[in-house]
Every structure is written in C-alpha cells, then in structure tokens.
Amino acid sequence: xxxxxxxxxxxxxxxxxxxxxxxxxxxxxxxxxxxxx
Length: 37
What we know:
Elements: E1 3-6, H1 13-22, E2 26-29
C-alpha cells in the first residue's frame, strides 16, 4: 500500500495523518462521505 483515499472529517484525522506520515503513505481527503449511519 502506497496511498490511502478517505473522506476525512473524523475526530481522529490528526492521528491518522501522523500514522500515514510515519509510514510514508500518501493520503488524500475527498470530503465526500461514502456511507451514512
């Protein structure tokens, strides 16, 4: 895995960004929800 695409908007986004950076992963936020609860 070299990249992650995700909707963003989570309370834990900062933590996810830190982990992605730590593992040298590219990550893109779409701003579009893919499902609703």
